[in-house]
Amino acid sequence: MRDNIKFRFVDKDNKTGIVSLHISTVNDIEWEDSWQGELPYTRLGIDQYTGLKDKNGKEIYEGDIVEYERLTPWEDEITRDEVIYSEGRFYPMGGYCIIDNGNIDDNTIDNIELEFEIVGNIHEESKV
């Protein structure tokens, strides 16, 4: 069960300065905490897996930049937002969906009516 809880680690190699992203599970984190000695990298960030995939089948992580169609009373618009975690849910930052009756509904990332596409992340250059 704990193996399906994934994180994307952002590490900087202490010798080369190269920044890399890699996926790990909770079990990998526990191993790292038990490591004796100096690690060969500096941890720059950790992004949690949302449990969802974009329209191309890529796993969506906190910190990803996603493109999606935002619904407004006037027109549908394509927008890009960072995926954030707040109040126990994943959201496209600043993303709200106005539904037909004029009410504002929170636009969580798990809203199955929206098709998200990952176009980058906050750690690497994106196609933004």
List the defining traits of the structure above.
128 residues; mainly beta; 10 strands; elongated; four-stranded antiparallel beta sheet; 51% strand
Seen as an oligomer or otherwise, the chain set is: single chain
Sheet with the most strands? 4 strands, antiparallel
Sum up the overall morphology in one term. elongated
Number of domains: 1
- Topology, number of strands: 10
- Which structural class matches the secondary elements? mainly beta
The amount of helix comes to under 10%
Q: What separation lies between the terminal Cα atoms?
A: 35 Å
Description:
- This protein is mostly beta strands and 128 residues long.
- 6% of the residues lie in helices and 51% in strands.
- The strands form three sheets. It has a four-stranded antiparallel beta sheet. The chain has a four-stranded antiparallel beta sheet with strand order 7-6-5-10, with no helix packed on it. A two-stranded antiparallel ribbon has the order 8-9.
- It starts with 5 loop residues before the first strand and ends in a 7-residue tail after the last strand.
- The model is unreliable at 97-104 (pLDDT under 50).
In short:
With 128 residues, this protein is mainly β.
Blueprint (SSEs and pairs):
Layout: E1 6-13, E2 19-25, H1 26-33, E3 41-53, E4 59-61, E5 64-71, E6 76-86, E7 89-92, E8 96-98, E9 104-106, E10 117-121
Antiparallel strand pairs: 1-2, 1-3, 3-4, 5-6, 5-10, 6-7, 8-9
